[in-house]
């Protein structure tokens, strides 16, 4: 008899990683991966592409240059940098080097819906680029703050990275917030409750949840397995692992 939820285990089904990082993260993190190492792991686990970011955009762009078909760069910008961040966003988008904006309110110390973020949001709308924003940690990156930001900018396409992350209350808030705002999509890396992936698919929307790994912070095998046992059928899992983010990013 098959164990509940593990009837369709297939670590190599086609995938696109909606959230990963290249480079070295020191301090408490102590994780690192090169572009070459990442692509080797992606090959092993059936990942066609990965959306990557790093606090130093030159690291991300170098990785994308090495593997342009596989690694897709976001511009990680700090709204606290003011005009400097705007100029950098403008420059990278004009050069068509980036596929979206990455905001990390926790890492860069600002509240997700603070006024300081507005100019970057306006530019993201103008450039028609999605905004990937970290969620799940007080006081800066809570789901309701991300929701408030999305509400202020209804034309922005906001991806709530980690969909609340490790805390049940935040995870539930991520779902409830996304239900209220149709310009929010959820990304599920590092979010421990497999049941909430199925719930998001069914109650937020079949097109509005993406699989991500947060590699190298998390192992591909662990992140893949959690989604695979979430209760969705293989056709639905293909949406979460691949089709939804492909469509969202406008990739063929
Ligand atoms: Zn991350």
Helix content: 40-55%
Largest sheet at a glance? 6 strands, parallel
Q: What low-confidence regions span 5 or more consecutive residues with pLDDT below 50? A: none
Number of helices: 10
Mean pLDDT, rounded to whole units?
Answer: 95
For the record, give the distance between the C-alpha atoms at the N and C termini, rounded to a whole number. 39 Å
Q: What is the CATH level 1 assignment?
A: Alpha Beta
Shape: globular
Strand order of the largest sheet: 6-7-8-9-10-11
Name of the CATH homologous superfamily: Metal-dependent hydrolases
Query: What small molecules does this complex bind?
Result: zinc ion
Which CATH architecture is right? Alpha-Beta Barrel
CATH topology (fold) name: TIM Barrel
Strand residue content: 15-25%
Radius of gyration: 17 Å
Q: Using DSSP, what is the number of strands?
A: 11
The helix/strand order is EEEHEHEEHEHHEHEHEHEHH
Number of domains: 1
Based on helices, strands and strand pairing, what is the structural class?
A: alpha/beta
């Amino acid at each position: 008899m098959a164990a509940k939820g593990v009837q369709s285990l297939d670590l190599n089904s086609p995938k696109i990683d909606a959230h990963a990082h290249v480079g070295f993260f020191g301090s408490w993190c102590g994780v690192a991966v090169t572009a070459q190492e990442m692509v080797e792991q992606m090959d092993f686990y059936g990942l066609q592409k990965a959306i990557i970011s790093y606090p130093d955009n030159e690291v991300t762009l170098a990785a994308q240059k090495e593997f342009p078909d596989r690694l897709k760069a976001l511009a990680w910008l700090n709204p606290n940098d003011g005009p400097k961040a705007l100029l950098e966003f403008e420059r990278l988008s004009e050069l068509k080097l980036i596929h979206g904006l990455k905001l990390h309110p926790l890492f860069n110390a600002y509240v997700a819906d603070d006024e300081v973020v507005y100019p970057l949001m306006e530019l993201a709308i103008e450039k028609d680029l999605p905004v990937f924003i970290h969620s799940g940690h007080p006081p800066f990156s809570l789901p309701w703050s991300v929701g408030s930001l999305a509400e202020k900018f209804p034309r922005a396409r906001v991806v709530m990275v980690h969909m609340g992350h490790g805390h049940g209350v935040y995870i539930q808030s991520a779902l409830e917030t996304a239900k209220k705002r149709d310009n929010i999509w959820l990304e599920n890396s590092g979010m421990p409750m497999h049941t909430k992936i199925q719930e998001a698919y069914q109650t937020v929307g079949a097109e509005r949840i993406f699989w991500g790994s947060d590699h190298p912070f998390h192992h591909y095998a662990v992140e893949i397995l959690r989604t695979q046992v979430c209760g969705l059928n293989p056709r639905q899992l293909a949406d979460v692992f691949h089709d939804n983010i492909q469509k969202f990013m406008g990739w063929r």
